[in-house]
Amino acid sequence: MTALSSPLLSACRSTTAAQADSAAALAVTAASPTLPPQTNPTANLSLKEFELTTAVTPIDLGTGEFKAWTYNGLPVGPEIRVTEGDRVRITLTNNLPDPTTVHWHGIPVPNAMDGVP
After folding, report:
1. Mean pLDDT (whole number) for 61-90
2. In CATH, what number does 2-113 get?
3. I need a surface site. Which of 51, 54, 60, 115 has the fewest CB within 10 A?
């Protein structure tokens, strides 16, 4: 098990509800008819903290069970929503048999921290 904690990140722009709905619609696939629940931050008002855990999880999408690589037990990772100016800390615990990474949409981070090898 590997736990990675990113440095504090600042959200780079705000998103309207319509833009968020449009982006969320793109995340829905035939294998995932509904979006996963939003990941809720801890109660610390000055810092929003989130935890992501990757693992091999048995999933049944109606065609039989298979082992999927999941985030927080879901075949589609949870939504993490922050507002411009928020201080954010995200901790990724990797329980997969291989290294993994996360691609951050809308947050300016170095390539090595953005799902880019």
Report:
1. 89
2. 2.60.40.420
3. 60
